[in-house]
Amino acid sequence: MKPDEKMGTWGVSRRQMMIGTGALAAGATVAHLGGLLKSAEAKGGPTEKWPWPYEKLDPAKTAEIAYEEWYRVFCGAAVINSVFSQLREKVGEPYTSFPVDSFVFLEGGMVGWGMTCGSNTGAAIVANLIIGPRIAGATQGHQISEDMFQWYSDASMPIFVPKTPKVTTELVKTTAESPLCHVSVGKWMKASGYPIGSPERKDRCARVAASNAFHLVELLNSWKDGKYEPSSSHTPVTDYGITAQMNCMECHGDDVPSAPMAKK
User: Fold this and answer.
1) How many Å apart are CA 8 and CA 17, to the nearest integer?
2) At how many degrees (to 10) do helices 59-90 and 118-131 cross?
3) Cα–Cα 20 to 30 A to 228, which of 16, 30, 123, 161?
């Protein structure tokens, strides 16, 4: 068969050639990705199952790392890296391959949306990777996450004072009564008078991340010693029939709808 505008040299249409080429490229990509995954698995990389090994850390050293890291990758990634950077040295894999900086999106309550404070989310990621998923019966990772959220809500922040602060102004402390970024930061801004872009507000959040990292390591060390006991009293589903914070009325007044309670 002679080649023409519609047919290739071997009687294959251009469409078929394009489809075949695309399939070949896709197959090569999948094969390459599979090779990377197998390589990571062979090295004991992050594709292996939970839980991940943990060695006890110094809370104060961890907090100092988190404080400095905030100025590089902000709250969530700062908390994660404050723990995982040390475990990379103490343990190696899977921490060596874990892409900590990819969690920079936790900044500002998830890319500036003011939702859960990245410090809380970062702490939850660390606790659940080290202790294991609740779906596999490792409930303490979930419980430590809850304790961190409760502690963050109740604490007068910031607690931790770095050895060499980037801002020397004495920072006012506030209690968020919420794990949410916009509530926590908003209350502090109102009390302090400093705007969102001020060096003081930035350093306040860096110290909050450091405070969270400090307390997270305290809980993880207690868990490692077999002495951890959950302390959170967060029971919204039981009390209100829906997942929620316990202080909705503070912001939403009388307009909070009631959830239909499950029949007992």
Assistant:
1) 8
2) 50
3) 161
Region class of 118: left (phi > 0), else alpha (psi between -120 and 50), else beta: alpha
Q: How far is CA 94 from the centre of its chain?
A: 17
- pLDDT score, position 242: 82
Place of tokens 């060695």: 55
Tokens of residue 253, six digits: 């007044």
> What pTM was computed for the model?
0.79
50: helix, coil or strand?
A: coil
Euclidean distance between CA atoms 237 and 244, whole angstroms: 8
Nearest to 205 by CA among 178, 177, 232, 167: 167
Question: Domain ranges in the chain?
Answer: 59-227
DSSP symbols for 111-152: TTS--B-HHHHHHHHHHHHHH--GGGT-HHHHHHHHHHHHHH
At residue 253, the pLDDT reads 74
Alpha-helix residue ranges (DSSP H) falling in the chain? 14-42, 59-90, 118-131, 139-154, 181-192, 199-224, 236-240, 249-252
- 249: tokens are 């009325």
| Mean pLDDT per 10-residue section of the chain, whose length is 264 residues | 40 39 41 43 54 97 98 98 98 96 96 96 95 72 90 97 97 96 96 97 98 98 94 77 77 76 62
CA atoms within 13 A on the CB side of 110: 7
